[in-house]
Design brief:
heterodimer; A: 226 residues; mainly alpha; 0% strand; B: 227 residues; MetI-like fold
């Protein structure tokens, strides 16, 4: 093969790439926080007493888990403006990732909630705690410790999956890489380095999340998996 | 000036749907062969082989599918010196991706078979390949079916990104029809519904298999309890 690799041009654009990586990171963390909050609501709704609300929450979760993120983003970014909801590309990316993560997070939380022994809940009811307080203190926090590892994996999956937001022209690492490779004609070199950046980011995220687990949930506070 | 979304346009989108299914089926079939090899390498007694499999899985699970697709697409162009059509790149990329995920799923299934099964078989004087083939794998397959079916959903949804390099599957077909009819409000939700119509039944199947298996496993564990 007569191809000569040139990585110098990638080095010249290192700050652009790092800027893209920074947006990818911010998008992922933002979507994680909003999505987790949404997941809590959805999981609460799925356990709730009202049948229509349970059904709506279940339908939401099933819909978002069984359609591609890319198509969800297209609906948000191209279809909704027809109804008057207009987002910038980066906003649509954040909203799409959050809505998507909410559905996956809700299923993970539900598994954790089911692991809380019913005796604990009955004890809290006997103490006269309100429904919401029971959910928050007796169910949610011990359940979180049980599903933390799954949530952490889901976060890494979302961070990697977030590369598709480039398709709606958000300015994440993938989109920046696309722009740079098309102006420099060094496609392989740029994608190679960007892939390496994603790999480093996912390894770092795993490490940080594991350390945070030890710090947030010391062994005494951990719920037990059912 | 734009066309309306009529029969021809709907047929075009359905034609894209066909390629989504073909791509998923090919990636699943060829990826299964690769995944089986990866799983065996992952539980092999040879340390270099294990390390290689761990590295392969880690690399493919630690980077975005879209980047893998770009790398294969542009990598093949670099190797061959000419810009190739999207389809060989798409098939190769999704096959590699499927082989890594299936390899990891099946590795877990093989290791979930209790070690006592190995020990008992060794005690009977059976050799390693025979034990793997006749004793461990038949039990592992039962454990592996629900997550494998679950992965199929992930794979089908994942093929939507092939649209980004111009492979005309369901998502790309929808995009093209949006471009000519300018009706994103109708077409993108329709595309989403088509994915849902395929993926949801598979998800339900995976869940049902998992529950049925769980009952079976509990029965086994119950039987093994010391009395």
């Amino acid at each position: 093969m007569g191809y000569v690799f040139q990585f110098g041009v990638v080095w010249d654009h290192r700050w652009d790439l790092l800027n893209g990586a920074w947006l990818t990171l911010r998008l992922s963390v933002g979507a994680f926080l909003i999505g987790l909050w949404l997941a809590g609501l959805l999981a609460y709704a799925r356990q709730g007493a009202s049948t229509p609300i349970r059904k709506v929450a279940a339908a939401y979760i099933e819909f978002f888990r069984n359609t591609p993120l890319l198509v969800q983003l297209f609906v948000l970014y191209f279809s909704l403006p027809m109804l008057g909801f207009r987002f910038s590309a980066d906003q649509a990316a954040l909203v799409g990732l959050s809505l998507n993560f909410g559905a996956y997070g809700a299923e993970i939380l539900r598994g954790g909630i089911l692991s809380v022994a019913s005796g604990q809940i009955e004890a809290a009811q006997a103490l006269g705690l309100s429904r919401w307080r029971i959910f928050r203190h007796v169910v949610l926090i011990p359940a979180l410790s049980v599903c933390y590892p799954a949530l952490a994996s889901q976060f890494v999956l979302m961070m990697l999956g977030s590369s598709v937001v480039s398709a709606i022209s958000a300015t994440d690492l993938t989109a920046i890489t696309n722009t740079l490779q098309s102006t420099t004609f060094r496609s392989f070199e740029f994608y190679f380095v960007a892939t390496g950046l994603y790999l480093v980011m996912s390894l770092m995220a795993r490490l940080v999340l594991m350390l945070a687990y030890r710090w947030l949930f010391p062994p005494a506070l951990r719920g037990r998996a059912a | 000036m734009s066309r309306d979304f009529g029969w021809h346009e709907l047929l075009f989108v359905l034609g894209g749907l066909r390629w989504t299914l073909v791509l998923s089926a090919v990636a699943l079939t060829v990826g299964s062969v690769g995944g089986f090899a990866v799983a065996l390498a992952r539980v092999s007694r040879s340390a270099p082989l294990r390390t290689l499999a761990i590295g392969y899985i880690g690399l493919l699970q630690g980077t975005p599918e879209l980047m893998q697709l770009f790398l294969v697409f542009y990598g093949l162009a670099v190797l061959t010196g000419v810009q190739i059509a999207p389809w060989p790149a798409v098939i190769l990329a999704f096959t590699l991706y499927a082989s890594a995920f299936l390899g990891e799923i099946w590795r877990a299934a093989i290791q979930a078979v209790p070690a006592t099964q190995w020990e008992a078989a060794f005690a009977l004087g059976l050799r390693r390949p025979v034990i793997m083939l006749r004793i461990v794998l038949p039990q592992a397959i039962r454990l592996a079916i629900p997550p494998t079916v679950g992965f199929l959903v992930q794979l089908i949804k994942g093929t939507s990104i092939a649209s980004i390099i111009g492979f005309v599957e369901l998502t790309r077909a929808g995009q093209l029809m949006v471009n000519v009819t300018f009706q994103p409000m109708l077409i993108f939700p329709l595309v989403a519904l088509m994915y849902f119509a395929i993926c949801w039944p598979i998800s339900l199947l995976s869940l049902r298999l998992e529950r049925r298996l769980d009952v079976g496993r509990r029965a086994i564990e119950g039987a093994a309890q010391p009395t």
